[in-house]
Amino acid sequence: MTDDTPAPSLPELIASLPDIETPRILIPDGWKQGRTAYGGLTTALALAMVKRRWPDLPPLRSAQVAFIGPVSGEAEIRTELLRRGRTAAYIQADVVADGGLGVRIVFIFMHARESHVEMPPRGIDAAQLPPRKPATTPPAMAPRFVGNFDIRSTGEEDSAVAHLSRWVRLHDRSGLDPMVELAVIGDVLPPAAMRLFREFGPLSSMNWQINLLVEQPETEDGWWLLRTTSDHVQSGSSGQQMSIHNSRGDAIATATQFVALFV
To answer: What is the 3-state secondary structure (H, E, C) of 185-217?
Structure first.
């Protein structure tokens, strides 16, 4: 595949995975960031394989993702049921490439339970939703995977604060499980610490913890609002808080991430 050839969409990649216990897939260049696959892609592919292998799982509630090494060339997706009880199931997914472990994920699926304790997630009032700015050309330094998304600015950023927000939509989401769509969308934004860079330099996401707040995420026309804010930037690393909202402002997911900075 040449650099100017459109990458297969996520639905096409999932459909191409053989229906076997440990499938292998060639990572297209158009889904890479630097020398590795975009982390949202590997997470989404792993989740799709888990749901294919165990179709009767409860709703997805959380995913703990460790980005351990590069994933390129042909990758193998290995899945293992760690534990399944009456209400919850823990499943591990490993993405292996070039003989080494690239990504390890623990997915937590759990049925809703009755409880006297309730505190609804904090959404955004429709009147306070940030605008969806017109489309612009991605900067030359943008990783290749962004070509699979429509990404719009919100105008919320303050240059003095390590904060980013964008409206994001997957170009092709036909037939996707809503949770798989969120998995590929949720890590699209660059680390918020980049707002503090005096000059551009490399960085690397080390992990990603995402918690799902609803059983069936829905939004209008595929648009999701992503926000991320650094809570510390020091000693060559950054921690950040992240959130996903739908087109009505409802809170759909929260997340945290640890990032290594090489600047």
So the answer is: HCCCCCCHHHHHCCCCCCEEECEEEEEECCCCC
